[in-house]
Amino acid sequence: MKASLFFLVAAAFCLSAVRGESHPLTDIPAPLEGVQTVFWLPEYPEKQFPAGSLVEAVVGVHNNANNPLNVTAIIGSLNNAQAFHQFYQNFSYQPQQAVVRPGEEASLSYYFMPDESFPPREFQVALTVFYNTPAGSFASTFFNETIDIVEVPPLIDVQGIFLLAALLALLAAAVYGAKSGLEWYGILKPKKASRKSEVKKRTVAAGEENEWLKGTNFNQGVKKAPKSKAPVKAAPEVTPLAPEPTPVVAKKTK
Ligand SMILES: *[C@@H]1O[C@H](CO)[C@@H](O)[C@H](O)[C@H]1NC(C)=O
Ligand SMILES: *[C@@H]1O[C@H](CO)[C@@H](O)[C@H](O)[C@H]1NC(C)=O
Ligand SMILES: *[C@@H]1O[C@H](CO)[C@@H](O)[C@H](O)[C@H]1NC(C)=O
């Protein structure tokens, strides 16, 4: 299902490539000698992007040429890792306005979002910064590497929960062991009777408090949390988990 959607998208791109007008990535100008670039992927340094997530790429442009550079735009694409000429997705053309004088450098952010229909596997992503000087138009491809599209990580980390449960069990065992040891040596006196009545009282109190919640499934199996500082809310806030809207960030570093 996902794979077929993916091929549809790919086919659509190929079709428009046949018909389309000149795309900025069709004839990329050469880089200007003396211009060096570096890049960072602040959030995904491992180059593993969940499909459908917004990725920020930062390019550092260092101008060792003799003329000031006018950085005009950044654009990129996602391609077949084995056959670069196959374009699966062209990322948005993002205009830039930065002048980098000789000897200076600037860092600029570019945001792209690999389509959520892509299956988890290897692709190639190429990102190119375009700039002008009085001598003409130039471009530097600052990123052109194999990346991994990965599955969106699950909201609940099952492994983590098991690990936490195991740790808690260990801790409980240790506490119980220590307590038994102390009792054995007579340092701590077991006080079973008093504890039982106390627990009884407490559950009664909690039951009364939660009387108004009957009929909802809010308090099923929920014990009163003794340490919670937040006031008990009047209505259970059980909204269905909506995906967070992806922020479209328009940040630009100059
Ligand atoms: C994507 O970019 C390539 C390379 O410039 C171009 O051939 C193709 O037409 C573009 N596709 C779309 C859908 O704009
Ligand atoms: C670069 O930008 C400056 C100011 O924005 C402008 O005056 C100049 O003509 C531009 N140069 C080129 C080559 O685009
Ligand atoms: C990216 O690298 C591939 C080789 O892996 C090359 O064919 C392609 O032209 C490069 N793309 C750009 C935009 O430089």
Automatic annotation (TrEMBL):
Q: Does the keyword Endoplasmic reticulum apply?
A: yes
Instruction: Please give, as recorded in its UniProt entry, the membrane topology of this protein.
Output: Single-pass type I membrane protein
What stretch or stretches form a coiled coil here?
A: none
Compositionally skewed regions (Low complexity) per UniProt? 228-238
Pfam families from the entry? Answer: TRAP_alpha
Position of the signal peptide: 1-20
Please give the residue ranges the record annotates as the region Disordered: 217-254
What are the UniProt keywords, alphabetically?
Calcium, Endoplasmic reticulum, Membrane, Signal, Transmembrane, Transmembrane helix
Question: Where, subcellularly, is it found?
Answer: Endoplasmic reticulum membrane
- Keyword Cell division part of the UniProt annotation: no
What family, per the record?
Belongs to the TRAP-alpha family.
Q: What domain comment accompanies this record?
A: Shows a remarkable charge distribution with the N-terminus being highly negatively charged, and the cytoplasmic C-terminus positively charged.
The UniProt function text for this chain reads: TRAP proteins are part of a complex whose function is to bind calcium to the ER membrane and thereby regulate the retention of ER resident proteins. May be involved in the recycling of the translocation apparatus after completion of the translocation process or may function as a membrane-bound chaperone facilitating folding of translocated proteins.
Question: What does the annotation say about its assembly with partners?
Answer: Heterotetramer of TRAP-alpha, TRAP-beta, TRAP-delta and TRAP-gamma.
Protein's recorded name:
Translocon-associated protein subunit alpha
Native organism: Coccomyxa subellipsoidea
